[in-house]
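Model it.
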Amino acid sequence: HVCLRRWTEAEEKALLPALLRVGLPDRDPQRELHLEWVQLRELTRYVLSQLTEHAPIAAILGFTENLERRFAAHEAELERVYYPAAAPALTVEERRVLQDAAPEP
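Modeled.
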């Protein structure tokens, strides 16, 4: 959860401004990405709380499957739409922010 927060906060700080500078026809990246980031962070936080509270594994599995689908859709959209659009507009500082917060491989 800590890594996810660090990464999504970096995207908000660096990726989103670049996207707003370039503009995306028929898209509202601020609204779309903010909603996705909030959903991913909240669902991740909830799964973590369920693990901490030793909830039944069946309940946890359902939430983790939902989280996996949301992550897959979010990452696909980032790779297909958002990162290619933002790449030419990212400043050196924005690139550094993203690189510093990137999850470990």
